[in-house]
Amino acid sequence: MYETTVTLVGEVLSVPKSRETRSGNQVVSFRMVSIARRFDRTNRRWVDGDRVYATVHCRKELAQGVLSSLDRKDPVVVTGKLRTREYEVEGQRRVTAEVEASAVGLDVLYDIRAGEDSTETSNTQTSNEEEALPYHLRAVNIVGSGTDERTPRPVGA
C-alpha cells in the first residue's frame, strides 16, 4: 500500500487532548489549520488563500512531548502520514483529513514566546539543565524551570 507523507505548517486550533487506547497506549490529538498565503498584485498585499484543516494524532514519546509543550494558537510544523476518514452526520457524507504524526515541532519563525524573559538565575544552572534535557528540547532552547513545566528561553540568551 502506498502512503502519503505530508508536512503541514500552520497553527494549533485546539488544546491537545490525551486519551488511552484499549491496549494502554497514550494518544494525543489536536486540530490544526494550514493557510496558504499569496501576494495579490492588484491590491499590493498578502492575502489568505486555501485552508487545510487536519486532526493530528501523536503516539508514544511524541504524544508526551506534544501534551507538555503545545497549546492552542501555537505555530507548528507537522510531518506524518495523511489519511482521510469518511463519516455521516444527519444523512450528509463528510470527509476529514487526519495526520498520523511522526514529528511535531514549534515553528520558531512565528513563535511569539521567543521574546519572553528567561527565569533562570545563573548561566551555570542553565547550562547544566540544558545538558540534562533530551536533544530535541535543547534544539529549540527550552529549559527546565525547576518544576515539571518547561519554560521557553529566547534564542541566543
Describe the structure.
Helices cover 15% and strands 50% of the residues. The chain is α+β, with helices and mostly antiparallel strands. Strand 5 (75-89) and strand 6 (92-106) form a beta hairpin.
Give a brief outline of the structure:
This protein is an alpha+beta fold.
Unreliable residue stretches: 118-126, 133-157
**Count of helical regions:** 3
Strand sequence of the main sheet, in spatial order? 1-3-4-6-5
Computed CA radius of gyration, to the nearest angstrom: 19 Å
**Largest sheet, strands/sense/barrel:** 5 strands, mixed, barrel
Strand runs, count: 8
**Distance between the first and last residues' Cα:** 47 Å
Q: Would you tell me the structural class of the helices and strands? A: alpha+beta
Task: Tell me the fraction of residues in β-strands, as a range.
Answer: over 45%
What is the helix content? Answer: 10-25%
User: How confident overall, as mean pLDDT?
Assistant: 80
From N to C, what is the helix and strand string?
A: EEEEHEEHHEE
Name the shape in a single word: globular
Give descriptors for this structure.
single chain, 157 residues, alpha+beta, five-stranded mixed beta barrel, two-stranded antiparallel sheet, 3 helices, 8 strands, globular
How is the secondary structure organized here?
Layout: E1 4-12, E2 17-20, E3 26-40, E4 45-59, H1 60-69, E5 75-89, E6 92-106, H2 123-132, H3 135-138, E7 142-144, E8 150-152
Parallel strand pairs: 4-6
Antiparallel strand pairs: 1-3, 1-5, 2-3, 3-4, 5-6, 7-8
